[in-house]
Design a protein that fits this description.
single chain; 592 residues; alpha+beta; Creatine Amidinohydrolase, Chain A, domain 1; six-stranded mixed sheet
Length: 592
């Protein structure tokens, strides 16, 4: 069924239900960023496969919003479908809620799957759309999508104490101490990474994100895990019971709520979906806050931090072998290689490490103009052929038992232009400035964003994505609450937080540049003026000196690069063969 046919079938369902606009977000029932195939409704109806976006369907049109990471990709993927693309973030483009308010009249009806919309967003719709009716109980996609994938049923496994560094019982004790402080009786969790972290369990329900579909309700004396029973072995069930956790059916939370004594429940309205929120009995008290588990897991404990360093050494070894191979392989013009094949080679190098059990996301390898699409995805059979010239942007990562990695390198394949050198060096200067920042404790990430953008801004240039996102521990590669970006996020950077440092620049139709390291927040010093924090870079992989314009660097910046390259060589060389060590020695010899 083509996109136009899918939309036509959906419009027939809308007409039958009396729905004027059908709203399709990207989330699942847990408001996840990455979702199982069952929940990829927006992608199925629009053809746009990016991780974020919103689709609105009316009887005479369809409208897709995509943010700056996906403007180029979305334009390509919706071409010819009749869908109007709104490049969210550009001047004059309405945000989705503004568009709804302008296009829904009093007495009309907005429809959507209430599982895919959070309580907070649902309340905002009700406030901004007075006089509009809502139909949220029916999932119209189920009536149209005949071969819709089933919900996943992967097994749950335990993450041993040597990796997670804190027992389930100790984590529960911290949560219950918070409940007492808030004079609350229960904590309700729907966030999959929070549940996995708290229970020291991991799953495989979402591609490259080791979580499992579930809900968790925590009281003072016991807790209830709502999950498909086929996912939990008898052994894990027994271990959970030892810590007072009862395993219940995935859809059993509303029934349990009716049977429990009424009380005050803490929850995050941004993560609890509308239908689940509506199932909470009227005699309960609801208090919304950021899940305390989100704040706890953001700060990695000493065991996790040490494991993260080990994971990045393993990851660096894979990256070095890949870059060496790529730069040599592209010279063989009789046997050309394309972006997809390059990504496959890198994936294989990562996964041959016994401690790497998965990728942390699908590898992004964009050559020249494709590199200007920040989240470009090369496809087998249509990927661009690589040539011994220009730049390729490779964004990739792995899931190791010791941690989650995410790294981007812009790699020289042959001769580069002065413009490429200028852009790369401006991005590198911002990357170095942020990576070597020292800042007062309780600083929020958005205050540091200018450090990464300053040199681009001085040249009238910018990038349309955040500078830094939080990273989970053997969990999601994108994980809050911390971030570094232009938007104000009221989260203070704290020791133990893992976050990316990834400025870039993407001249459309030409090439892309992005440089990404992961950094741990740690204490720098205490003075009479306060406690200062800094970043420890945990990623170990050289920058490409062939595209650096040394005349644009200060002596301090040159020293930073040399210091980092010495560290890279010392960390990785013990795991490389002689030929690889010789190659790395040349790559990390910056001052020529």
């Amino acid at each position: 069924m083509e996109i136009r046919e899918r939309l036509a079938a959906l419009r027939a369902c809308m007409a039958r239900e009396g729905i004027d606009i059908y709203w399709i977000p990207s989330q699942d029932a847990h408001q996840s960023e990455y979702v199982a195939d069952y929940w990829r409704v927006r992608a199925w109806f629009s053809g746009f496969t990016g991780s974020a976006g919103t689709l609105a369907v009316t009887q005479d049109g369809a409208y897709l919003w995509a943010d700056g990471r996906y403007h180029i990709q979305a334009e390509r993927q919706v071409a010819g479908t009749g869908i109007t693309l709104y490049k969210w973030g550009l001047e004059g483009v309405p945000d989705p809620e503004e568009w709804l308010a302008a296009n829904l009249k009093e007495g009309q009806t907005l429809g959507f799957d209430g599982r895919m919309v959070s309580m907070r967003v649902g309340e905002a719709y009700a406030e901004k759309l007075p006089g509009v009716s809502f139909k949220v109980e029916k999932d119209l996609a189920d009536e149209v999508w005949a071969d819709r994938p089933a919900l996943p049923a992967g097994a749950v496994r335990e993450l041993e104490l040597e990796y997670c560094g804190e027992s389930r019982a100790d984590k529960f004790a911290r949560v219950r101490e918070h409940l007492r402080g808030q004079e609350a009786d229960y904590l309700m969790l729907a966030s999959l990474d929070d549940i996995a972290w708290l229970l020291n369990l991991r799953g495989s329900d979402i591609l490259h994100t080791p979580v499992f579909y579930s809900y968790l309700l925590i009281g003072f004396d016991r807790a209830w895990l709502f999950v498909d029973s086929c996912k939990v072995s008898d052994e894990i069930r027994a271990h959970l019971a030892e810590d007072g956790v009862e395993v219940c059916p995935y859809d059993g939370l509303p029934t349990l709520l009716r049977d429990l004594p009424a009380g005050k429940v803490l929850l995050n309205k941004a993560r609890i979906n509308m239908l689940l929120g509506a199932s909470i009995p009227d005699n309960w008290t609801i208090a919304s806050e950021t899940d305390i588990t989100t704040r706890f897991k953001a700060c990695k404990n000493p065991t996790e931090q040490e494991n993260i360093r080990k994971a990045h050494v393993m990851d660096g070894v894979a990256m070095v072998r890949f870059i060496k191979w790529l730069q040599e392989r592209v010279k063989d013009t009789e046997h050309p290689v394309d972006e997809w094949e390059a990504g496959q080679y890198l994936d294989a190098r990562r996964l041959e490490e016994p401690n790497c059990f998965d990728l942390s996301f699908g590898t992004i390898a964009g050559y020249m103009a494709n590199g200007a699409s920040a989240h470009y995805s090369a496809q087998q059979g249509s990927a661009a052929q690589l040539k011994p010239e220009g730049l390729i942007v490779v964004d990739s990562g792995g899931q190791y038992y010791q941690g989650t990695t995410d790294i981007t390198r812009t790699i020289v394949l042959g001769p580069v232009t002065d413009r490429m050198k200028k852009v790369y060096t401006l991005v590198l200067k911002g990357h170095l400035a942020l990576g070597h920042a020292q800042f007062l404790e309780k600083t929020e990430g958005h205050y540091l964003d200018i450090l990464a953008r300053q040199y681009l801004w001085q040249n009238g240039m910018d990038y349309r994505h955040g500078t830094g996102h939080g990273v989970g521990y053997v969990l999601s590669v994108h994980e809050g609450p911390q971030n570094i970006g232009r938007g104000t996020v009221d989260v203070k950077l704290e020791p133990g937080m893992l976050i990316s440092n990834e400025p870039g620049y993407y001249p459309e139709g030409e090439f892309g540049v992005r440089i990404e390291n992961l950094v741990l927040v740690r204490e720098a010093e205490k003075t009479v003026d306060g406690r200062f924090l800094c970043f420890e870079t945990v990623t170990v992989c050289p920058y490409d000196w062939r595209v650096i314009d040394e005349s644009m660097l200060t002596e301090q910046e040159k020293a930073w690069i040399n210091e980092y390259h010495r560290h890279v060589y010392e960390a990785l060389s013990p795991y490389l063969n002689r030929e690889e060590r010789e190659w790395l020695a040349a790559e990390t010899r910056y001052s020529r």
